[in-house]
Design goal:
1 helix, mainly beta, 5-stranded antiparallel β-sheet
Length: 100
């Protein structure tokens, strides 16, 4: 993961910035795959068991058939070219969600 210059293909996003987050999730998953809940949670759904959700406070939930993530994010790094979303935590951990 590179935190260098950003482009539309490669950008780091504040998970609490709802407008920017939604724009990138729509680019990542497709505009018809992204919804916003009444509580402000934005979800990109790929199938019934594969999804990424981000709460208004930046807490990320994801589901994949063989693994999942549930924790706070300091930042989200979208690599649209490679189909990857990196969740970076305050402790420096990095969880990668790859677009199916």
């Amino acid at each position: 993961m590179d935190d260098g210059p950003t482009t539309d293909e490669n950008e780091t996003v504040d998970p609490t910035d709802r407008e920017t987050l939604r724009r990138h999730l729509e680019q990542f998953a497709g505009p018809n795959s992204v919804t916003a809940g009444t509580d402000g949670t934005v979800t990109a759904r790929f199938s019934s068991s594969t999804y990424v959700s981000v709460d208004p406070d930046g807490h990320v939930h994801s589901g994949m058939p063989l693994h999942a993530f549930d924790g706070p994010a300091e930042r989200l790094h979208f690599d649209h070219g490679d189909g990857e979303l990196h969740v970076v935590t305050g402790e420096g951990s990095n969880y990668m969600f790859r677009r199916p």
